[in-house]
Amino acid sequence: MAFWLIMLLVFGVVIGNLMLLKHTAKMKMPSLKQRHSEAQQEAEEDPKEAVKSQTKSKED
Question: Helix, strand, coil % (nearest 5) of the chain?
């Protein structure tokens, strides 16, 4: 009984990861150059907000 429960759990994790991979493959990531220019513009406008957004993006 325990064997089948473990196999079902492993199968569920594998299928879940494959579905997540398929879903995220269609997403577009912003280029590093674009992120850098956006951060630079924020720093010019409001230095305190730019520091907050940079630390927030590093945590993600």
Answer: 85, 0, 15
What average pLDDT does range 25-49 have in this prediction?
A: 73
Taking the alpha carbons at both ends of the chain, their separation in whole angstroms is 40
Question: How far, rounded to the nearest angstrom, does the alpha carbon of residue 53 sit from its chain's CA centroid?
Answer: 15
Amino acid type, 59: E
On whether the pTM is more than 0.70, the answer is: no
The whole-angstrom distance between residue 3's C-alpha and the CA centroid of its chain comes to: 34
Q: What is the dihedral of CA 42, 45, 51, 52, to 10 degrees?
A: -80
DSSP state of 29: P
